[in-house]
Every structure is written in structure tokens, then in C-alpha cells.
Specification:
The structure is a homodimer.
Chain A lengths: L2 E7 L11 H10 L1 H4 L2 E7 L4 H5 L4 E4 L7 H4 L5 E3 L19 E3 L6 H16 L2 H9 L15 E5 L3 H12 L3 E6 L10 E4 L3 H4 L5 E4 L13 H4 L7 E4 L8 H9 L5 E4 L19 E3 L10 H17 L15
Helix pairs in contact in A: 1-11, 5-7
């Protein structure tokens, strides 16, 4: 039995996130038995999308078409997105009832852990200043004590949040998680429900945002809640820009009311050259790389094949989105 | 019984390494019983040194006088240096036989651990390039896989080396130590004797130098040994510049034959504005801060008091230098 798998990418996507023929061929070689059950089409910018949908059983596509999908894709059983966040896809009322949507959560934890380790230390040790001094040929000792003993408040404790938690824990920090249900596993020492976040924020030396953008999290850290942070607290955002009032954040940073920030996500990406964030005081801008590896799509396809094997064995798919909850 | 303790500092020392009256008063308050057994003099630039030596029982001094010391300081029982390295003091033939020399090793491990964690990640993730791109308002994704699985070769496995080893280990790296005797404790998985270092160098993704400068270690990583490193290896030096042929290192870096370096120590410090190191390709210059905390001298005095208590109880002093071995 042969299934039709359609891969679809926009040409404007970053290189490491494109579903190319070379990428597919390499993955198929790693999974030869499963691959021979597939007929594969590869499309760009939706040029062959309509034709492909007519017969596609499966699709890998970060931006699946939402209009009349059940009608256009009568056989479509499964859509795999290439990212972890599906905020651009919710609400999921467009998803046909016979189609399962899976995302790529779980692929980002190890890299998020490294990125948060670096972010915490760079902020604590004022590393950007030392690099600026190097450019100025200035030998100026910026001395800071070891970071152990500080407290990290991690908002969201899924794949990314647990990576952030491991980062903080291994640096000797106390880890407090903020989650929907107010529970979190180790290395979180304590967890607050998101409704109780006001109690957690004043404890943070490092506030690390890792949550997806949902109806519940958008605007979560508003101006009032930013004011609950200590004056020497620092912010790390590897989740979504929409979680926080960035205008209020920038005002606080420029006034020196926070120690600094590492921001990996922005409302507009790529961040335009005119953005004030490039030069905001004590801010380190990273271009949405904190959770991605150059082998990200190879890993995605390996996980897709694993899931395809589960489907062929009648097992439920990993990383299936619940349309009602939106995650 | 009252002892005379003399504190001596050069005015040119960095602020955080000066033995001031305020620093002493604070320490004395933390150790009131021991402090009342002491008469303390505080000198600068050797202005009152000769007078003080006549009666001093103990001295804290990074640069103790070497000439005719037994004659000038007949009662001197104990000299405490303020640093860990005593390379400027060896050979110790100047040290009177009735005088014990102690250094401040053990005070630097926790900070060295943070610094090496940051250095490994900054080199691996090419963080300096991302910060340069920020200055250029350039959104350019530099993607690197998680660092776990790489190998760190740590030269010297004392206080600093063990800190470096802990840093590498917690990032998921394999840790190989190079020590005098070819043995090292966890987190080192394997150790080579310094005479076998040629076997260890080709294994390094990160070569981390932490050894003191001794007759045995000066020039250890010469041009020939640098050539044993992999082309994508990176170098971290938090020990002493004299351990490595820096001219050869700079040539290799400029030719792109190494991934990069974080250098915290230099032949001449402060590094003069004319130094080529400020702008050497893929080099991060840190101004000899990797192992120091702003509370360094407070901790030194606390450790001195602990040792003074041991002396009063007839116990051997911690961190005593063996004049024959020079460490």
C-alpha cells in the first residue's frame, strides 16, 4: 500500500527550515522500509498545493491551508507542522474532523537548555559589556560573584521550559515554574498556577518566558506585572513576543529599572533594521535561534517517520494537538 | 597574647584586590574573638614595610619582600599571598625557614566554573558574532547543535581545573584532564600525565588551560603542540599566558585554523591598547576576571581567620606552599 505525502515550504523560510529534496532523500535512506510505502511530492509557495491536496494522505507544512480543507483534501489524515508553536493556526475550527494535527514539540529542549545557560550567565556576568570593552580596547574588570543561589522563574514548563529549568538548576539557581495547573516536575522546586503569577514575579532574579502564545498567555506579562519584578532582575524570552508588553519592557530597560534582557523572539521577524531593540540598553538580541539546531529538519523527519510507523501499527500519534485546547 | 599582623598592598592593584581598613574592619567584626588577639598595621607601596617587618608575626602581601627577609623580619611566622598563583615568587629560596607561605587557592573554583561554562557556550554558539550582528542591525541566524557530546581537555586539575571540569561536565561534555601525575578525580573521565599531553590534544574540541605557571608548565603548549589540535577546536585560557605560545596561537587563529579562543590572561596586563589581541579573529578578550569575585578579599580574610584559628590550635595551615615543589 502506498500513501501520498506532500511536503510544502515557503521560499521565504530560513534555509534550515526548508523541506528540500536532499533533506527528504537523506531521511528516506535512514528509514528505507517505511519510505517505500510513500509517494512524495515537494511543493514551494503553494504552487502545486491544490493538485497535491487532491490525493495527499499526509502533509508536512508549517502553514497548512485553512479554507475549505476537508473539501480540497478529502483523503488528508494527518498534518505535521514544522514548528512547536501553532499560534498562527488557532482556533482550529478549520481542521477537518478526520485530520490529525501534530506539531514538533520536544525537538527544542536540549538547544533551549544551552541557550538559557548562556543567557543567564551572559546577563549575570555582564558579558556584552566586556565584549564592548574589547572593541574599545579597554581593560576594565567587571567582577560578579558566582551565579549560584539566584532564582529563576520559568513561565511555561513544557519542552522549552524544562530545558530552561535544567539550565538554571545546573547553574545552582532555584527554579520556580509558572504553569497552567500550578504543578511542575523537577528541577522546579516550586510551581505557581498562572493565575497566581503575581506571587512568583517578585522572586525572580531571572524571568524566563518559554510558553506558547495562546489566548491565555498573550499579554500575560503586562505593564503592571513587569512592575512586580525586582530592579536587578533580568528577562529572557525564548517563547513568544506576545507573552509580554514589549513597549513597557523597553521603557523599563531604558530607565535602568531592570538589569537586562536576552530576547530571541519579536513581534516582527526578521527584526527590521529600524527597530529600537537593536540598541536598547542592556539588551541582547538573538535572531530566533535559541531553540533551533542546524539539524532541526533532519530530526523532524526522523520523528515524522517514527510517528508514521506508529500510525501503520495503529498506535496514537505523538504530539497530536487537541483541537479543543489548542495545544 | 597579641600578634602583629601587617597588611600590605600596592596602590596600582585593582580596587577589588586592595587590603583596605574598611575591608579589615568588616572582617574583624565577623571574627571578633580572633581579631582581639591581633594588632594590625596597613601599609601601601612598602612605605611602612620596613618598620612593620621588625615586629610582624604575620603578613598578608601579594608581593612579599625577598631580600634579607629573615634578618629584616625576625618574628615573621606566616606570609599569606592574596592570589592563587605564586609564579612571581618562585624559586622560594628567599623564604626564611621559620616562615610558612600560604596562597589563596580554592577561592576561585566556583567563579572559574561559571566562566568556563560561559566560555564554552559562547565559543560553540558563536555568540560574539551574534552580538556583532546586533550592532550591525543584522538578523542572521547562526545555528549550532547542542554542545553535549563534545570533548574538553583540561590542563591542570586543581581548584580552577576542577571548576572547568565541572563546567564541561554539566554541559554534557566528555572531560579529559592533563595533570602532573596522570590522575584526576571525577568529573574527569580520563587523565593523561603532562608528559603524554601529545595524546590528549588531538581529542580536544575545547582545550582549557588552568595550570599555574611553573618551570614545568611554562611553554607547555608550544607551536608544535598547537598543531596537534583539531581545526575546529577552541581554546580557553584562565591559567597563565606563559603556558602557551601566544604568537603561534594568534597566527593559527588569524589563519582560521582554530574555531576561536577566550583568553583571560596575557603576558602584559592590563593588555595595552596597541595589543593585536583586541582584534584577533574569533578571539574574546576578558580582562583577568574569570576566577575573581567582587567579594574575593572578604573571602580571603575569612579564610585567613580560619587559618589563624588553626594556628592558635596548633593545627597545620591550609594552603601551605611546599618550598621544594613550589606549589
Amino acid at each position: 500500500m502506498t500513501f501520498h505525502l506532500h511536503l510544502e515550504t515557503r521560499r521565504t523560510r530560513p534555509e534550515h527550515l526548508k523541506l528540500t529534496e536532499a533533506l527528504w532523500d537523506a531521511a528516506a535512506k535512514r528509514h528505507p522500509e517505511l519510505a517505500q510505502q510513500l509517494r512524495v511530492t515537494i511543493g514551494w509557495d503553494d504552487e502545486i498545493l491544490d493538485e497535491a491536496l487532491k490525493t495527499a494522505d499526509f502533509m508536512i507544512n508549517q502553514f497548512p491551508p485553512k479554507e475549505r480543507l476537508a473539501e480540497r483534501a478529502p483523503r488528508l489524515k494527518w498534518i505535521q507542522t514544522t514548528g512547536a508553536g501553532i499560534d498562527a493556526l488557532v482556533p482550529l475550527s478549520w481542521l477537518p474532523p478526520h485530520t490529525t494535527l501534530t506539531n514538533n514539540r520536544g525537538a527544542h529542549g536540549a538547544k533551549a537548555e544551552d541557550s538559557c545557560t548562556l543567557a543567564i550567565l551572559a546577563l549575570h556576568m555582564r558579558f556584552a559589556e566586556t565584549l564592548q570593552n574589547q572593541r574599545d580596547r579597554l581593560w576594565k574588570m567587571i567582577l560578579t560573584p558566582p551565579v549560584a543561589g539566584k532564582t529563576a522563574v520559568v513561565v511555561g514548563f513544557g519542552d522549552l521550559g524544562q530545558g530552561a529549568g535544567r539550565a538554571a538548576h545546573k547553574l545552582g539557581l532555584r527554579v520556580i515554574a509558572v504553569t497552567r495547573g500550578g504543578k511542575a516536575e523537577a528541577p522546579a522546586e516550586k510551581a505557581y498556577a498562572v493565575t497566581q503569577i503575581d506571587e512568583a514575579l517578585p522572586l525572580a532574579d531571572f524571568l524566563i518566558l518559554t510558553a506558547p502564545a495562546t489566548a491565555e498567555t498573550c499579554g500575560l506579562i503586562d505593564r503592571r506585572r513587569l512592575a512586580l519584578l525586582k530592579r536587578d532582575a533580568a528577562v529572557v524570552n525564548i517563547g513568544r513576543a506576545a507573552l509580554m508588553d514589549y513597549a513597557a519592557l523597553r521603557e523599563k530597560l531604558e530607565r535602568g529599572e531592570l538589569a537586562g534582557a536576552v530576547l530571541d523572539v519579536f513581534d516582527e521577524e526578521p527584526l527590521p533594521p529600524s527597530s529600537p531593540w537593536w540598541t536598547t540598553r542592556n539588551v541582547i538580541v538573538t535572531p530566533h535561534i535559541s531553540c533551533d539546531s542546524p539539524r532541526y529538519m533532519d530530526a523532524l523527519l526522523d520523528r515524522w517517520f517514527e510517528n508514521f510507523g506508529r500510525l501503520r501499527s495503529g498506535k496514537p500519534l505523538h504530539n497530536a494537538i487537541d483541537p479543543a485546547r489548542g495545544y
